[in-house]
Structures are given as C-alpha cells and as structure tokens.
C-alpha cells in the first residue's frame, strides 16, 4: 500500500478515466496555439467548424446533389462515371402509365402501388395517431396518481428499436400468437393475420401507432400543461360545460402543438420502413410495400438493381418531404406570431 | 393504503363517477396491457422451449413435459399421467409410441411394459425456463460478434458525435465570422433530408471511400447530426461570453477555452445528446443493412432481422436475442424516464 500523499486527494473513477483524455487534449493544445498565432481567432473558428462541416458535406450535402445526377442516368453500374446519361428517362419511366387510375397499367407498377399504400398509410396514421395521442394526452393531463409512471408507460415503445418492434408484433400476430390466444377464448379459430392482405396493412398502421404514439403524446401534453388553469376555473364559474370548455379553450390553445404533431406524423409516415420491413417484409404480395422499401429494393436488391430509378423515386419523395417541412416551418412561424406559444 | 383507496376512487368534482373518470381508467388499464403486454409476452416467450412455443393455445408461463431417467434407457423418458383400464391413475414413462398405442413403463418397476391408448394419457408438466435459448446463440451463432459490432458502432459514433458537434456548436455560438448564418442555415436545412432520399448516392460515396463492408461506413455518415449541433449551440448561447473573454485575458488558448470552460458547462446538454445518440445508433437499421453485407460485420439489428427471415422456425433463439437487444434501451428507459419524458417535450427532438 502506498502512503497517501499529503495534500493530494484520491481521484474518483471518473477522474481516472478522464486522465488520458486530459492528457490528449493538452497535447493537441500545442499545435493549436501555433495555429491560433498564425491564423488568429477567425482561423480557430474555422478549425472548430471544420470536422463537422467536412463530415456533413461529404455524407449529407454531396450525396444530396449527386442524387440529381444519378436520377438522370441508367444501367446497373454503381459509379457515376460508368453510368450512361438518359436525361429524364427514369422520371418518364416512373410516370409511364396508360391509365393513371390503375397502378397495374404503369411501367413501374410497384412504384405506384407503393405510392398508393404510402398515401393510405399516411392518411390513417395522421388521423388515428392524432386521435390516440390526443386522448392519451388529455387523460395524462388529469390529476392522476403516479402520473409520471403512466406517462413513461405510453412513452416506453418509442425507445425500442424498429427491429424489436417488428419482431414483437410478428410474434404476437402469428398463428400461435397472443392475439389468436385471446380470440380463442371467445371461440375464434387461429388465423395467420400477417398472411392476409388487409389485416397485414392494418397491422403496419397499428404497430406504427403503438411504437410512436408516446412521442406525440408528450408534445401534446407539453402544450396542455402550458394552458393556464385559471381559464378553466373562469369557465367553470360561468357555468360552461366541460365539452364546451374543451372546444373553446383546449383545442384553440393546443392548435400550435397539434399542427407540429400533424406535420411530424406526416413526415415520418412518408418515410416508414424499418418496422414494416421486419414485420411483413412488404407482403403479402405488395400489400404493405411502402416508398422507402421500393427505393431500397430498386436501388440495392441485386436482381432488379436500378440505382437511377431509385434515385428518381427518392427525389420525388424528397420533394414531398420538403413541401411538408416547409409547411411545418410556415405553420410554426405563423403560430409563433399569434400568441408566441409553440 | 388509504392513499391508494383515495386515489382509486377519486372522482371529478367528488359527486359520483363522471364518465370521464371511467374513460380515464379504461384507457390507463387498457394502455397498461397494450403498451407493456407485448414486451412482457416476448420476454416470457423467450424462456420457452421450441415445443412449448409451437403449442396452441399457449401457456402464460413456460412449461415442459417432465422427464425421468429410467435404468436401462440412455435418454430421459417423458412422464405421463395415465388412467389405466381399471380406473387407477399412475405416472408412467413412455418408451415408444406406435400409432395410437403407447408403450409405457413404471419408472419404479422398469421390467414390465404396459400398453396404453394415447387418449388415456396426459403429459406431466413442470415449469422450466429454457435458459439455453440465451446461452446457445452465444456459442452457435455470431451473436457475440453482432453484439460487439453494435456496441462498437454505438460507442464510437456517440463519442465522435459529441466531439464534432460540440466543436461546431462552440464555433457557431462564440465566434463572429462571415458565413456563420449560412453554416447554421445549411445545417438546419438538412434536417429535411432523410436518409431514404440520399440512400443511393450515399452508398456510392461510402463505397468510393472504401468504407463498404466496414463499420466506419456505418459510423461516419451519422455523426454530423444537425439536431446535435442545434441543441448544443442553443445551450452554449446561454453561457455568458464574459467567461470566454476572461479566459482570454488569462492567456488561455481557444482550444483550452473550449475544453476546460465551455465543455464542462455544457455537460447537461451533452448528456441529452449522448443518450439520444446511443438510442439512435443502437436502433439504426436501414443504413447498416445497406452498408454491411458480410455476416461477421452485421450489427445486432441487422443480424436479428436477417435471422428472423432465414430461420423462421427458430423463434426460441430469435426471441431471446430480441430480449438481449432490448436490454440497453430498457436500462436507458428505467434510469432516465423522468428526465426523458420531460426533456423531449421541451426540445421536440427524437
């Protein structure tokens, strides 16, 4: 045992872990002092910004622009220089349909099936997600015991990975699953839900709501808690019925949060992929094939690889997402003007 | 106890049960089953043997048929409760089964073979947790490797995210320079660009850099996250500039100001970002699925999804591996739930 050095306190584990980090940070300090002397403080700003900007530029900005180039080329080659220029060929292939009401008449029929599925998915997600999370937020906003427990309960699935979410529900919806067990008690025969086109689609909608509802509930709850309580007390004094108070006080004051939630759900629903891919794999048939999976399979599945077509489809999807995001920015800005609440 | 009773019977306004009280309780109790039920069922199922998993109707707890070792037989035999022709009930072990007739012996008196119709017997069952569901993937599959890959990706990506994003946030909050607004706008604008839009060109860039089938190819594209820069910058703006000026008077270098003054003061925001980065990276699926095609490089999420497709019959392993995959996130949830549920609503991030 070493004797304690007088005047020196023992280091905690955290400090011991930090020692090499401190050493390394100190070591970098010398060349950086030189940099600071030669370039001045402005140069240091660039130095601090550079790593992030470099990574960001290479892996986000650059691909964003290259994507346009890709969408105008054809073939299966991966490198842009090896690919032949086809102009708007990929786009015209995507919109080449003899009857626009029937996806089967299109050259890229799966693309339009995916667009149709995604459209339905988005509509159902927005209405059901808003409904469920609004009711949950209203309930969690009541004077409940163990409120943080209930709140955490609804939030819990948000943290689960999409793969885990997909596997949990695949396990529950299969023939020997919990759902069939429950229905069996009421005399129903076991049914393979995910092998049925309609039920499979419904399952992707429901599972996605299950997995993400907690997040939107929290946003709405934050909005509800920002509504001054005295408004309700005043309404009660005036003999206002609760339903009326909800329509006249809660909804208008919650509108900004509702708008944020609607747009966030929209954007997320357009990009749906992971949990569906694990849960149904897009099937049976193409009944749960959504846009992102179409892009993934067109771009990367070896048998039908067509990166140009995938890029064109992703740009169309990007346009939709940009419109939705701008919508969100516009709405949140206008709601900030009217009252300053977010 | 009285608090519980008071809580359970609390009503709106105190006069009888208002319909909203009923809705509240139906919703909360229903939520308890729907939100936790699936995960609990998964964990419970992960301890069942393959035979128990294939059973319908399923049992809540894992049961297996009890086995006995009988002298003269190599393998343990299944034990059954049998109603003999004379109405006596006995516990017999099955030797073999031919059609509807089962040849059974009394474990206490193995000499005599008794023939029993299979409708006259039912298995003796005992509760048993199939821990081999958990241990076998560690020896038979590349599970440990997937786990390691996931941990590596998560830890390294989170560390780089924290360093790189905090440096950028420091520059964007404490320095005046030309193009600052442009840099900030560009970063914010890309919040609009989801991975699925730039998937194809990103793939070609990553493979051009030689990072295809490389864990760095999974890590690097994710680390310059705009959300991270944004929340760190917002936090650093609240740190007074006088602190930075005072340090400059004391001849501290800009680098020292960053890591000795600003970083320690930003710790709460760094913690938020660290937690989110861990959850994001641990849960990542689509990008690793594209970049990694060699089995030994799969992350847990990719490995699990590939296995669930390939080994559709091996649910007992898949369930156990899924539970293991859930553990870090559930730990994050347990330790930080209060913090997360209040924090997220405030920042609006995910």
From TrEMBL, chain A:
<keyword id="KW-1133">Transmembrane helix</keyword>
<comment type="similarity">
    <text>Belongs to the binding-protein-dependent transport system permease family.</text>
</comment>
<feature type="transmembrane region" description="Helical">
    <location>
        <begin position="47"/>
        <end position="70"/>
    </location>
</feature>
<dbReference type="InterPro" id="IPR035906">
    <property type="entry name" value="MetI-like_sf"/>
</dbReference>
<dbReference type="InterPro" id="IPR051393">
    <property type="entry name" value="ABC_transporter_permease"/>
</dbReference>
<dbReference type="GO" id="GO:0005886">
    <property type="term" value="C:plasma membrane"/>
</dbReference>
<keyword id="KW-0813">Transport</keyword>
<feature type="transmembrane region" description="Helical">
    <location>
        <begin position="152"/>
        <end position="172"/>
    </location>
</feature>
<feature type="transmembrane region" description="Helical">
    <location>
        <begin position="199"/>
        <end position="224"/>
    </location>
</feature>
<keyword id="KW-0812">Transmembrane</keyword>
<protein>
    <submittedName>
        <fullName>Sugar ABC transporter permease</fullName>
    </submittedName>
</protein>
<feature type="transmembrane region" description="Helical">
    <location>
        <begin position="119"/>
        <end position="140"/>
    </location>
</feature>
<dbReference type="GO" id="GO:0055085">
    <property type="term" value="P:transmembrane transport"/>
</dbReference>
<dbReference type="Pfam" id="PF00528">
    <property type="entry name" value="BPD_transp_1"/>
</dbReference>
<feature type="transmembrane region" description="Helical">
    <location>
        <begin position="309"/>
        <end position="331"/>
    </location>
</feature>
<keyword id="KW-1003">Cell membrane</keyword>
<keyword id="KW-0472">Membrane</keyword>
<dbReference type="InterPro" id="IPR000515">
    <property type="entry name" value="MetI-like"/>
</dbReference>
<feature type="transmembrane region" description="Helical">
    <location>
        <begin position="245"/>
        <end position="267"/>
    </location>
</feature>
<feature type="domain" description="ABC transmembrane type-1">
    <location>
        <begin position="115"/>
        <end position="328"/>
    </location>
</feature>
UniProtKB/TrEMBL annotation, chain B:
<keyword id="KW-1003">Cell membrane</keyword>
<feature type="transmembrane region" description="Helical">
    <location>
        <begin position="315"/>
        <end position="336"/>
    </location>
</feature>
<feature type="transmembrane region" description="Helical">
    <location>
        <begin position="215"/>
        <end position="236"/>
    </location>
</feature>
<keyword id="KW-0813">Transport</keyword>
<feature type="transmembrane region" description="Helical">
    <location>
        <begin position="182"/>
        <end position="203"/>
    </location>
</feature>
<feature type="transmembrane region" description="Helical">
    <location>
        <begin position="146"/>
        <end position="170"/>
    </location>
</feature>
<keyword id="KW-0812">Transmembrane</keyword>
<comment type="similarity">
    <text>Belongs to the binding-protein-dependent transport system permease family.</text>
</comment>
<dbReference type="GO" id="GO:0005886">
    <property type="term" value="C:plasma membrane"/>
</dbReference>
<dbReference type="InterPro" id="IPR035906">
    <property type="entry name" value="MetI-like_sf"/>
</dbReference>
<keyword id="KW-1133">Transmembrane helix</keyword>
<feature type="domain" description="ABC transmembrane type-1">
    <location>
        <begin position="147"/>
        <end position="336"/>
    </location>
</feature>
<dbReference type="Pfam" id="PF00528">
    <property type="entry name" value="BPD_transp_1"/>
</dbReference>
<protein>
    <submittedName>
        <fullName>ABC transporter permease</fullName>
    </submittedName>
</protein>
<keyword id="KW-0472">Membrane</keyword>
<feature type="transmembrane region" description="Helical">
    <location>
        <begin position="21"/>
        <end position="43"/>
    </location>
</feature>
<dbReference type="InterPro" id="IPR000515">
    <property type="entry name" value="MetI-like"/>
</dbReference>
<dbReference type="GO" id="GO:0055085">
    <property type="term" value="P:transmembrane transport"/>
</dbReference>
<feature type="transmembrane region" description="Helical">
    <location>
        <begin position="257"/>
        <end position="280"/>
    </location>
</feature>
